Structures are given as C-alpha cells and as structure tokens.
Predict the 3D structure of the following.
Amino acid sequence: MAYMSMSLHAVNHRLTNVPVKQLPHLASCLAASLSNCGELLSTPQSQKSTKSDSDNAVQIHKLVTRLGSLLQDRTYEGRWTAVVLVKALVEAGQWEILRGCEPFVRGLISILAKSDPVSTKKMCIITLTRIFHLTYQYPTLVREITTPSLPGFITSALNLISVKPSSEPLRKLKPSTPFVEVVLQAFSELIARHPTIFRPFTAQIHSVLQTIIGSTAPTFPEPILEITQQLFISLHNCAPKNSGGEEWKNACRMTITSIHATSSSVFRAAVEQWESVDPSVRQISHPQNYGEEVGNGPDALGLGSWRGLDAGVNRLVVLLRMLSGFLGTATSSTVVMPVGAILDLTARLNMLTVPSSGSDIQANPQIGRAERENMLTELPRIHVACMKLLLHLVKTLETGVVSVAQTILEQALWVFRAEKFSREVRAGVYDLISALLARVGPSMTKQSVSSLTSTLRTCCHDLLPPAGNQNAPAERSDPKNKTKSNQITANADSFFNPGLKQTRQTSTSSSFPYLTRAASELLVAILTHAPTEFVSPALRAEIDRTIIMTSDKNAMLASVLNPFPAMQGRGVGTSIMPFLARSYPAETEVESLIRPRMPVLMNGSALNGYTAMDEDEEEEEDDESAPAPSTAPEASGFLKPMATPSLHQDMMDVEVSPPANKRSYAEDVEMKAPAPSTVDSLAGAQSKKLRFEAEQAAASTLGAASPAAFTGTAAISVPTSSIAGPAPVQTTTTATVTSKPTLAGGKKTSALPSAEAAEDESDEELPTLNMDPDTDDEDDE
Amino acid sequence: MLSECFIASTLASGKVPASASLRDVGVCVHEFQPTLNLRSTFKKSSTAARCLAVSPSHVFAAQAEKAIVHVYSREKGNQEAIVPFPERIRSIAVAGGKNGDVLVLGTEGGRLILWETCTGRQVATTASHLRPVTALVVDPTSNFILSGSSDASIHVWSLVDLLSFTKAPSGRDRQPPNSPIRTFSNHRAGITSIAVGHSAGRYNIAVSAAEDNTAIAWDYHTGRLLRTFLLPSNAISIALDPADRAFYVGYQDGSIQSIDFYKSQSIQHPLHDPSLQSTPSQPPAEDRWLPPTADCGAAHALTLSYDGMTLLSGHQNGKVLSWNVGRKKYASTVADYTHPITNIMMLPPTGLPHPTLDLQRVAHTIVKPRYDHTLSESSQSIGTVPADYTFSTHLLPSISSTSNQFTEAFSHAYFPESMIEEGLAELAALDQPGSNGVQASSMSQAVTDEEAAAKDSQIFDLEAQLVTLKQKASINETARQSTTDEVTKLRSDLANLHDYITELHEKQEQAQREKIIRQARKEERETRRRDAWFAAEKKGKKGDAVLRKMDAEDTLMTSDTDDQSSDEQ
C-alpha cells in the first residue's frame, strides 16, 4: 500500500508539473504505475478510515480532477494523454472509479467530434467501449452512466464513419475513413448487451453494413469484412422482444436466397445438374439476358447490384463467408438453423466442378467460351468458401452433425476428386475431413474409409519431401486412383541433378504452412478415429512412412497408439515406436507410453487393496523386521505413501489371501478354503521360513546384503508371517495376528532409519522380480 | 464455486416422505460436496431403474409402466414437456457427447427409438431384441449404442448409421437397415446393467452384468470377451472407475462389491492378456461391502464421485448411501427420499475449468419428436437431407482466438505498446513545423469533413509551400546581400592596403634621397677640409689649426644637420 500511495503521489506530481506538451512521452509509464495501483484505487471509500487512507482519497480525487481537466485540454497532447490514463484508471479502479466516471465519458465523447488525430479517437472509442463493458455488471452504473451516454456515443461513432444526408434513417459510408474497423468492433462488442439502446439505430447501422458487404468492385479488407458480417448477424439482438430468433432466421434465409440468386448468374455458362430438394427454391427461375454481361440486381439482402464475373464471384464468396458467420456468431436466444437448406445450397455449389478426364460439364451454348473458362477458373475459390462453411457447420453442431456427416463427406469428396490440384481446396478438404472423422470416425465402415484412400494418399504426398517419388506411381496400384497417374511430369533437370528437385520441393512445402498443418492433422485424425483395420495395408505403410519422414510427434503417437491389427498368419504387427523413441526420447507422452507407470497410478494411500503386489512387499518387510528390524521408510512399495494402521486393519481380509500373481481367484480360493491344504501350504512356507532365516543370517554375517540373498524373501507371504506368531490355523485369527506385525512394521518404518535400511532400499526391487518363480515353487511344494 | 451434485430419481411407492419438501418429488438434484443439501427437485415422476437420463440442459425421465417420457428443464427447474411414444420405455440414455442432443430409448418391444431433441427427428430401429431393452449405454465417442435385453443378448448399434440421412456405402447389405452391427451373446440370462469404459479410443471396454451371476468385461469394438467374473450373487447395478481400473457392482441385498482388474502386475493390460481371458475369475463372496442395516434393500443404482473415491448407491428403502472406495466399506447415509431410488447419477462438478467440455451452444427447449413419414420412408430418394431439416439451438459466445488490435487493446491494462507508439508518432508529426505538421493537420481535417477535406488540405499544402518558398527566398536574398557587402569591404581593405604600401614606398625613397644628399654633403665637406688644409699648407700655415677651426665650425653645423636627418628618418 505504501508503495502504491507513493506511486500515486508521483503520478499526480508529474501530471501537474510536467508541461502538457511533454506528457505523451510519459503517458506509457504513468499508465503502468496507475495500473499497478489497482488495489488502492479500487478500495471502497468507506474503508478508508486512517489518516494515510484519507490522504490517498485526496490523491485519487486530485488525479480524477486532473484527468477531467486534461480531457478538456486545448492541446492534442493533453487530450491524448488523458485518454490513455483514463483507460488505465478505469481498468485498475473498477467499481470505485467507474461510479464517478460520468464526466470522463462526456469528455471522451466530445473528443470524438473534435479534430483530434486518428489515434486519439481510436483510443477514445476503445476506452468508451471498455467503460460501457465494465459497467454492464452493475445495474446502477448502467442506469447512471451507460443508458444516458450510449446513444450519444453511437451517434458520434456513426458520424465518424458515415454521413446522414437527410432526415431519412439511412447513412452513407464515408469513403476511406480509418475508423470503420474500430467503430464496428465497438458496436459488435456492445450490441448484444444493450440491444434496446441500439434499437433506434438499427436501420442506420444496417445501411452502413450493407454498403460494406455489398461493395464488390473494390472489396474491403478481410478484417473489416469479417467484423461487418459479425455485426450484421448480431443486429438480430436488437429485434423487439422474443423476435430475435425469427429475425436471425430471416436474415439467414435471405442470405441463402441471395447466394442462390448470385450463383444462378455466376454459373450461367454451364447447365447445372443440381435439383433442389426444396420446392420453393426449385420454382424460382431466372430469365436471364444472355446477351449482356453477367450481373445481378439488388438481391434479397438489399445489397447493391454487380456486373462482371469477377465481381459476382467476389460477392458469392463474401456471402458464403457470411453464412458461415451465421453458424459461428453468438445468438440472442434459441435460433432455428436451416441445416437442410444449407446442405442443399452447398450441394448445388459443390456439384459443379472443374471438368476432369472422368467428367465433363454441360456447357450452355448461349454463353461464350471465354466466360465459361473464366467461371471454371474461379470455381476452386467458391469451393474453398463452401468447405469453410461446412467446417463451420460441423464445428457448431458438434455431435449434432452425425445425421448429415455422410452427406457432407460426400460433397467434400466430389470437390476433392475434381479440384485437388488447388492447394486451398486440398487444405479445406483436409480440415473438413479431420473435423468429420472426430465425430463419426469410430463407426465408419470399410467402404467409407476406403473412399478416403485417394485423399489420404494426396495428403501424404503433400507432407513428404518427394525425393523418391519418381517410382511412386508404380507403387500406387489402387484402381481408384485413375486421376493420379499423370500428376507427376518428367522433369529433365531432376535426371541430371537429383538434389535439385528435393531442395525445391522442401522449400515449396514449407511455404504453405496451412496446407502442411491441415495434412498432418488429417493423418492424426484418420489414425486416431477411424478403425485401423479398414485402412488398407499399403496405405497404412505409406502413412507410416510419411509420419516417419516428417517426424511429426502427434502423428507418430497416433500411429503407435493405433497399431495396424495383426493379421492372421502375418506374424507380429509392426509399430513405428522405435522411431518415436528415437525422435522424442524426452517427451512426457513417449515416456508414459514406453515405460507405463500403471501400478503407481493405483495411488496406494486410499486404494490399498488395489495392488496385491504392494501388500506382499509389505508383508515381506514385516518378516524381515522380525529377525532384523530394518525397513527403509521409502521401501514400502512403489512410491507408496505411508499406510495408516487403521487402513491396514480394514484390509486384513484381503491380505490374508495369498498373492494372486499369475493365478486366478478361483485357485486362490481353492488353496485357502480347505483347512488341510492351508496347513500344507503353511508347512511349506514354514520350511521356507527356516531357509530364509538361514539366508538372512548368512547375509548379516556377510555384512552387506547382496541382491541374491534376498531372492528367497519374496516367497514369504502372508501365511508365513502369521506362523511366526502363535500359529493358529484359522484364517480369521491369522488376520488379527498379522495386523500386529503390520502395525509394528508401520511404526518401525518411521522409527528405524538405520544403516541397514539403506542396503534394503537398494535391494528392494529384486524380490519383486523374482516373485513368480518363487510362488511356483511354493505351489510345487 | 466448486461443487459436485448428484441426481437421483425414485419409483413412486405407497410410503409418504417425512419431509414436506420431498412430497410428490420424483427426481432430486442433491449437492454432494462441499455441503450435503437438496438443491432442486422435479415433481410428478416415477421411474424404474435405468430410466433417467440427464443432458446439460434437460432431465429425461421415462415413466414406469407408461409409454411417456417426462422432460424437465434444468435451467427453469420445471416440467417442460410430456412426450408420448408408441411403446413403453424400459431404458433411456443420452447420446451426443457434452451437448446430449440425442435421446436413445429402449422399448418394451425390443427396439430402439432415437430422438434428436434439437431437430425433432425420430428414428426407430428394427426390433432386434426379443424381449424388453433393459440396459442402454452410449459410448464416450457417441458413435455406438450398447443395448442389453432380458433375452440375454447385447446389441451394439452404430449411432451414426442409424441417424445418417445418407447411408454410408455399406457392406452390410444383407442386413436390413437400422439393425445392430454386432451382437454379444456370452450371457446366459437377462442383462441387468451395462457400463462402458471412459476411453475414446478403440480399446475401450464394456462391462455387463446379467442375472446368471456373471459380469463380463468385453471389447465392444470387436465383440471379444476379455474376462468373465463369477459373482457371488446377482448384480443389478454397475459403476466403472473413472480410470477403468475397477468396477463396482450392487446386489439385491444392498451390498456392494468392488472388482479390481489389476490384481497382478504384468506388462500387459490384464484385460487384454489372452491367458486370463478364458478363465473366469471369481471374487469371493465375503469381499462384499455390507450395508449398515439389512433393510436397505437392493442397490438399484451406483455412481462414482468425480475423483472416483466415493461410491454412491441408491437403495430400495429410499436411502442414498456413500461408500469409501479406499476403505472398501460403508461411509455414511447421504440422503433419504423414502421412495425406492432407481437411478442415481453424479453430475460433472461445476466450477472446474473444462476447456473441452465448455458448451458452445445450449438447447433451452427441446423439439418434440414428430414422426415424419418422409423421413422414415425408404421410398424417398436416399441420401438427401430434407430442406426443412432444421436444428434449434442457442449459440453461446465463444472466446474467439482471433486477436486483432481492438481485442488486444480492449483487454489490455491501458493500451498496448504498439498503439501508444503509433499515437506518439502521430503527435510528433503534428508537432513538427513545416510540411509534416501541415500534413498531419490536413489529416485531421479530412476526418471532420470529407469532401472539402481533400481540397482544403491541398490548399493548406500549397499555402504552406508558398510560405516556405518565400522564407527561402528572403533567406537567399539576405545571404546574397551579406556576401556582396563582404566583398566590397574586402575590396576597400585591399585599396587601403595598396595606399599604405605606396606611402611606405614614398617614405623609403625619400629616406634614400636624404641619405644620398647627406653623403654628398659629407663628401663636399671632406673635400672642403682637404682643400682648406692644402691651402693652409700652401700658405705655410699650420694646416691643422685651420682644420681644428673648421671642425669647430662643422660640429655646430653637423649637429644641426644630424638632428635634422635623424628627425627625417
């Protein structure tokens, strides 16, 4: 606190004494010290009782007053500094500052109308948005600050980006203003929280957004378009009560209709095979004038008309992106997603593909060849947007997508078959298939997995630095890959200089990180989710080879964790585990895979009964403690915490049963239940006990316990330890008796750290390893 | 706050609950940790065992002896709908991962009904079970349904195949559509309960219990039997450890037993050890964890806490007992609902960050199933999604990973460094005199009014240029003037120097001249003295005396002349 009040003092001092012209250079560090004073600034007034606290209150008041006057300052520098510091103050002080920030808000809004530099205004908008955002959680502050000043803010912000020509509620976007993005960002941040305040401005905002979305000739940059679409979709929040969902649905429907209308014009050079499943869409026929340039008038969304194929394709891509936005933007209430209509739309767009050797499009004779070729060249761009739309659908519906997953997969494969030459299409399809595999992969049939074969091969091809690919076509014997055959053309250079191609190709693959990422994710997805037995051995070999060549850790893990099932008569299935171990020896995943710690996971303290192994060891330690009380504290099993005596009591009936190492329960019971056999085993154990004692004596004479000396100890199991007592035959009494040495052992473990303990510690593991043969011995006896 | 709740449902019985808050209550949401108390209740429900399903938004309770399912909204805490079905429902389960969008119902007649609660679509399967479907679970990937029936068989169904509009190109042509993909028939009597492992991988297990006193662990991906357990009695409920290390069964007499998969230590997972698979193992009867009193009644339902260390069981006498898994014994009685508890489920704890489980959407209301004929008829063109297939949901705001300048500044303590630097640069540009400053101010002009801005700025620009040019010109002028001044001054200096030099020359000449004159005078005097001496000698007089006389005269004269010459020089 002392530090904070000191730094607050310093800030005040500098704010008042440094000339205003020089303040901007200090602003950054002043703001930093303010934000460090958060605790002080946010302390409620009522708690400030002592003298130093009241001094702080004075300082805070001074600061607030100074900032208020700086906001009204004559100079740009003063106002700029004030904006920066107000944001810092509000963030640090939270409620305590917010409740008094009404003058700040007024000052900030008035700056928007002044001729301040761009950055001041941008920061102003951000600060105001932040204040409105922070006040949202306090209804009283919303009433006092947000509700009165938000309309003023919206108007000033709209004035920054547009002009309102007359009394009509429409606005015209100003050309080339630097504020479009920040204003729209601020609106979309606030609109969902204050829909009623935004409601009167809906028409104005809508008209501005329409202009941005509808501009085709020079389209706006990507980030602006994105935020515009998001805000356009969020406008449904402002709809009067309970009609938000309806509004959303209408906007979504209109977007779909608009896409249909646009694509009818764009695709006019070809005769489409598609027929809608929706009768209402089917009936719309578009009489077109084939004589003039392709174009479309104002559409369902009210977007402006466009002329020329390129503008049409741009419009189509923008609209498709907007439709994806509908699936990804938060809604005000429950909305009804037209999944059927969207899939109908994508079916239409994806059905028309670039003609390949197998298929050809039916050309419209009334349109010239130039336009048709132009359209076909632009097709991949449209399909990439379609793939993104479908990916959004899959990601939004998550598990709800299962009913349409197969439909989506088929559409993706249509596009892939015809247009896999395009890098963007490939990446889009990989992403989409990865997302689908995560949802429906485990229940895929052999047929659907094999329909992915060609995609997966191309995927491997994308990842591999294709050094040895000259002979790759021969390897591909799969009849489904007809289209692949002429993909690799002879390169004369590569005959003379084999290294040339490789270096060039690696540089190629590294320059498309999105493609590489999508491809490696697809490999991980197919290995993890699809049934591995349905992947053909040849393809699996290719995938594994690619994974090894790229040394992708995730893919390697996926391959190791989902091995190819061992076929009958094929011997042991192969695994690329050695490669994984070589490549990533220090990674946690690899460690846990190769050296599993499963018994340790059976955390001992509470789950005592879980590992018979641990119990045995403990018993054996008890035995040791009888002749020579030497038990190391850490020696009790695998990292097993100290068991409390009471727990041991609870578990006694478990411990009584002999260790069930390789034997089943049935055998154990047989062995234990009849009295004679128990006696037998006890007798056998007793003889063993003698032998053990002899060995123990030998070991102690030797001074240092050699590992071999302890081999016998493992065999001494529970019954043996009970015989060491008064030797009752009944198992129940055995249990009670056993508990005593256990208790004693438990105490001793902590009480007796001796020199011998260290020896035991080192030898502790060995009895465990020799367990099995010894128990067998016992059985034989 | 971190809290953990369980939900339990009861079967209506003649008894009247002691507490008024439990009257008429059929489903209870009970806080288990940190404090035990009843959170909320749903009324008018009577469910048999395995007839309760919970999704994040709703509770579905299939009513005992009726063909209806009650749907309760968890948000609103009320009964939202009563959905009738053509047959009595014997078991239900929720599929669809974290969202729980699909309700699977097992009917009295041995078929499954799938209901997409967000779309209202309903799909029925063939009646592959010969007897009622008594146990139903959905695997963690939401791809497979396991249905057990009292006809002793367990069918594995592909959820995706059942729901898909486009049937995958399938090699299973021989079988009718909507039929199970696999059947597990190792049980000899009616299936009582099934539990499925928690893995999303392909080595996941299922554990099923049947009335023939067995529990079987098996691999539902292949149908392979992994291990048979011969239980001391008839298990009626099963719960699996969160890490699939053990499972717990509840018996008719209210006792519980834990059965551990890891009895021995071997490199191989014990369930996948072929040498163990053929031999059934028999957990001893005395291992059972006994209930505190004998009148607890059957343990109809089991559930495990999030940490897997506490087991809750719902009993016939209406009590919920908690058992300590570590100590393997009864711990306490958690709740008493009077009516027989038929279902109990632990809900995921609230307050733990679960990035993968965060919902992206919620369904506030369910869409009632409509048995659409176009959907079910196979005559319809296969593989098309009907245009009116819609999905009702509420999309929630997600934390978008895209970071731009705005979001970065928005969440920053003040403003990011880049933005501050940008502003400083702009201010500095404003400050600078000359063209830069004019440009910056023209920028701010452009901001205020758009059309005139361009022209204004141009004018400003030109004016500023003019000013600078004038300035430059004047500077040049003065500079030129100063140089000419300097030159003239230098020239006058030079002239002065010349004058001086000539003056000096004149002086030197004069001095020379005087010197010559003086010499001439001296010579003249010498000659005169010599003449005078000679003349005196001639006259016979002493020449010296004459000389002396002359000298005296001379000194007078010369002193004068010397003085004069010294002045001159």
Summary: The longest helix of chain A spans residues 369-397. Chain A touches chain B through 122 residues (CB under 8 Å).
